[in-house]
Structures are given as structure tokens and as C-alpha cells.
Amino acid sequence: xxxxxxxxxxxxxxxxxxxxxxxxxxxxxxxxxxxxxxxxxxxxxxxxxxxxxxxxxxxxxxxxxxxxxxxxxxxxxxxxxxxxxxxxxxxxxxxxxxxxxxxxxxxxxxxxxxxxxxxxxxxxxxxxxxxxxxxxxxxxxxxxxxxxxxxxxxxxxxxxxxxxxxxxxxxxxxxxxxxxxxxxxxxxxxxxxxxxxxxxxxxxxxxxxxxxxxxxxxxxxxxxxxxxxxxxxxxxxxxxxxxxxxxxxxxxxxxxxxxxxxxxxxxxxxxxxxxxxxxxxxxxxxxxxxxxxxxxxxxxxxxxxxxxxxxxxxxxxxxxxxxxxxxxxxxxxxxxxxxxxxxxxxxxxxxxxxxxxxxxxxxxxxxxxxxxxxxxxxxxxxxxxxxxxxxxxxxxxx
Length: 398
Known about the structure:
The chain is an alpha+beta fold and 398 residues long. The chain has 2 domains: 13-291, Beta Polymerase, domain 2 (2-Layer Sandwich), CATH 3.30.460.20; 311-389, no CATH class. Helices cover 53% and strands 13% of the residues. It is built from 10 helices and 7 strands. The protein has helices at 8-15, 82-92, 96-103, 157-165, 175-188, 190-210, 214-246, 254-319, 341-363, 374-389, and strands at 40-46, 51-56, 71-77, 110-114, 117-127, 131-141, 144-149. It has a 7-stranded mixed β-sheet with strand order 2-1-3-7-6-5-4, with helices on both faces. Helix 5 (175-188) runs parallel beside helix 8 (254-319). The termini are far apart.
């Protein structure tokens, strides 16, 4: 299969796997995608009694929003400018390898510790006409959280609303709880996607029961490809959350680890749902092929029955088509001299067809269960055996 014949989601996923830095380049080289949108920076500072959200044009102005009694969340949408990414890295003293992983958006979900900050990579999915997997990078430091996204638009709006309204304990806890809230929102964003896939699979199942077409099997193949991408995106999140629970990093407090258990459970549930959807898609594909095979078998059965019926008819017609002269010998097809010889041959053919059809019907080859006559006898035999085994019967052996 040529690359242009692959489904759109598979081509998109494979193209995203290419690194932009040349092989052998210095570690930490930051090479951005020229087609990526320009970075848009927004700084959110919050505490128990205050909340502030501002857009920032110059990365050097981010430090002005730091406060010792507040948590700072810096969100950057767009990775199209390498100089801006490097300047943000200098403000937060980020390692060069972290900046390299941020701009290379094919990373799997992971967590790495770099001394004064914790680096996490997660994958955020959206579903419109097809599935889109987007990398989101999170840096957790001392009273600050830094997030990098490929483009504007995400599933983090519920977290922003909670910060704005002050619902829950998100304002009263530290930056590690904010990271947990972001991870939880990213992982929970998989549930609506899986619900839509479930609805599409149910719709495909109903359509396959009515009629199978090449368009349906193409949709099933596309869904299986997208579910494969979804599985590859969600699977490492379980390891990510498990690492945060298992490793004793000073950036995650014991109070936040309790909440991370719930996040881990959600990741496991999503993995199970993804596997279930993939199995359903595989079953629908097998069901489609089974229907095609059954339809072909029905066609072959009809053709075989017709051919079997015409074989003896051809034999009878061939016998009476032989050029024997009945005047030469009384044994040379005397029925040719009968007044009803033609009707005899036609009646013989009709009788042959009737006998064959009756035989096929008796054997169950024409829509009848061949065990219909034997079933009452079997039931009577089972009742007789049960009666013999009952205590006090004549044949119970007592």
C-alpha cells in the first residue's frame, strides 16, 4: 500500500514522528516547526484570596508577575518561535534537553526530574472529523507551573474556571496540586472521545446488520487506526502517574499523591475502554467478512442446487437425443414410437426434479432443519431415561 492510500489519521501520525533536528546534532538543539503558530503567553497568578490573568508579549516580563505568596501558572500556546522558547527557558532556568523535548512534539507521556524542577509530557486528544493528538509539556517548580501547547484550544478550561471562581481547594494548595488538576483534566478528556467512538461503533453495528458496503468497512478500518493511535497516546500516562506516586520527589507532596491515585484509576479505565473499543471494531470487521462469506455460500448453494437438478435432466435429454432407429430393432428406444413418448420424457424430467427437491429438503439444504424429525424422538428418549432413573420406577435397578 502506497503512503497516499493510507487513512488520514495514520499519515498524520506517521508524519509527526519525524524529528526536525538533523541526526548527530548537539543535544539540546531547539528547532521549531516553521508552520507552527507563534507563541502566545498568558500568566495566571492565584492565591487563597486573589486571582489574576494577563497576557504577556515579552518573555522577560514574566518574572515581574512572580509573588512569594502566590502560585504562578504560565501557559504558552504555539511553538513556532525558537527564540521565544529559549527566552522562556532562561527565565525559568530550564535545561536544554527540556527545551528540545518541548519543541519535538512526538514525545510519549513521561516524567523526568531536573534538579530544581520536574518535567512532564502528556498527550491531549481531540476528536472532530478525525482524531488529533497534541503534546502538552508541563514544568513544575517552586511555586510555579509552566505549560507548553502546540496550538490554542485545550481541555483545561474547567481548571481555569475553578481558579477564577475559587471553587474547591485548588487556590489553597500549591503548584503540585495544580499539576495534578491539569493532568486529571487531560486524562479525563479521553472519556468524551471514547464515548463518541462508542456511539460510532454502535451506529456501524446497526448498519452492518442491515447491509454491508465497502464504505462501512472503510469506516471500521479508520476507527481501528484511530483507536490504535488513542491507545498509544493514553498507555504511557499510566506509567507517568505511577512514577509520580512511586518516586519520592520533593516536588510532589503526600497530600497531592492521594489525589493522583484517582488520576491513575482514570488512566487504567481509559486503557480498558480503549481496548474494548478496539475489540468491538475488530469484531465488526470479522462480522462484515462473515456476512460476505455467508452470502457467497448462499449463492454457491443455489447455483449448486440448480446445477445438480439440471445434470439428470441433461442426461435424460441426451439419452433421447441419440439416433437409434426403432425399426431396425425392438430394443432401439421403442418409446420413440409411443403416442405419449414426449409426455413420458417430460414427466420423467419433472419427477426427477421433484425427487431431487424432496431429497434436498429432507437433508435440510433448502431452508429446513434436518433435525426437526429427530428432535421429538430425542426428547422422548430423554424423558424415558429420566423416568428410569427416578426412585421407585420399574427400571431403577432397585
